[in-house]
Amino acid sequence: MTPTATRSAPGARVTLAGLRRLLARILGIGLLLAAAGCTTVLVRNAVPEDKLEQAHPYGIDAPLMRIWGDSLRQEDVDRVLKIRADSVRQRFREESAGGRTIHHVSLALSGGGPDGAFGAGLLAGWTARGDRPEFQVVTGVSTGAIIALFAFLGPDHDDTLREIYTTYSSKDLFIRTFFTGLTGGTALLDTRGYRKLIDRYITDEIVADIAEAYAEGRLLMIGTTNIDASRPVIWNIGAIAASGHADAKRLIQDVVQASSAIPAVFPPGIIPVEVDGKRYDEMHVDGGATQQVMLYSPAIRLGDFDHDLGVKIDRTVYVVINNKLEKPYAPVRPRLLSIAGTAASSLIGGSGSGDVYRIFAVAERDGLDLNITAIPTDFDAEPNEMFDPVYMTSLYQLGRQVGLDGNRWSPYPLDFVPAE
């Protein structure tokens, strides 16, 4: 029998909105104490600003291993387009030679913490439906980064995603270290359990499979936030895997962990880098701090790319939002932290909506067939802890049904009313 999400007694009930506000309040407490001088600073050797562009994580120097996610210099755009053109010619050699239309499918997965169970279930249902395509490009942020790894590698990994999103609870992933975090640490939770999970699933075999897919011209991209620069970073995971570097697997594991590191709540990712033979470090946190879901930089015009390549490319994009876009009504206590915490949660939600509209604008400009879905607003199950296997199993089953149905995609942002 499939378990369903349960509701606790009114006095102990923990809503998802409440969990989000709790995390935001914890963040607020940390910021207040930091302002009061109650915390210490992590000893680091941060990359000098003028050396950011030359920094190589773990000394790995692979072509276009990562780029900024907010803006690109023209020289970066030119490099991206050249490398992609070479990949497309290789991947679709017969279509290009014969002048046939190339069909290109992308998948973008948002953040959402435990609500990533929805996206994991949707992929499984899509597989069962029988018309799930092979994705040429897969992007993921935060929990979407975990899903993206296995969505990129195909349906054979659906069971891995089901296991990740239905069998682990909070105690498997972290322990609370509030006092340490508030009086000198980097976070309020110790996530060594989560790191063990990442190391367990991102194996040498997985890295080799990613490298093979990259060699075939397919892309897997994960987003983090470089908190020193306050800018989004897009990591080309296939390029890292294909580098053959001894630390490639470790860097991929670091990036996945950093992508879901909620600032001040989860420890940041400290990634060692090299510049001119000298060792520095970068601090990366949750990609959702700067973008909840991503596709490609608006600086890249695919129409120009197609023209220069001399082929017709029919592009379809699927965007999975592992969140409800309509938040439940919840009166706020007239207290500083309650107000600040709820406002922070609203800002994050608003940021996600803005990301969807940016993707919509790019899709309109470049002629993409856009398809968007999110957790249905009538799903009202509630978790009893941050990572509640019963709640996540229920959400996974809902996502699976959405994938099976295959008709819950919208060509517009879900709150957008097109002209008649």
UniProtKB/TrEMBL annotation:
<dbReference type="InterPro" id="IPR016035">
    <property type="entry name" value="Acyl_Trfase/lysoPLipase"/>
</dbReference>
<keyword id="KW-1133">Transmembrane helix</keyword>
<feature type="short sequence motif" description="DGA/G">
    <location>
        <begin position="286"/>
        <end position="288"/>
    </location>
</feature>
<keyword id="KW-0443">Lipid metabolism</keyword>
<feature type="active site" description="Nucleophile">
    <location>
        <position position="142"/>
    </location>
</feature>
<keyword id="KW-0472">Membrane</keyword>
<keyword id="KW-0378">Hydrolase</keyword>
<feature type="active site" description="Proton acceptor">
    <location>
        <position position="286"/>
    </location>
</feature>
<dbReference type="Pfam" id="PF01734">
    <property type="entry name" value="Patatin"/>
</dbReference>
<feature type="short sequence motif" description="GXSXG">
    <location>
        <begin position="140"/>
        <end position="144"/>
    </location>
</feature>
<keyword id="KW-0442">Lipid degradation</keyword>
<feature type="domain" description="PNPLA">
    <location>
        <begin position="107"/>
        <end position="300"/>
    </location>
</feature>
<feature type="short sequence motif" description="GXGXXG">
    <location>
        <begin position="111"/>
        <end position="116"/>
    </location>
</feature>
<feature type="transmembrane region" description="Helical">
    <location>
        <begin position="22"/>
        <end position="43"/>
    </location>
</feature>
<protein>
    <submittedName>
        <fullName>Patatin-like phospholipase family protein</fullName>
    </submittedName>
</protein>
<dbReference type="InterPro" id="IPR002641">
    <property type="entry name" value="PNPLA_dom"/>
</dbReference>
<keyword id="KW-0812">Transmembrane</keyword>
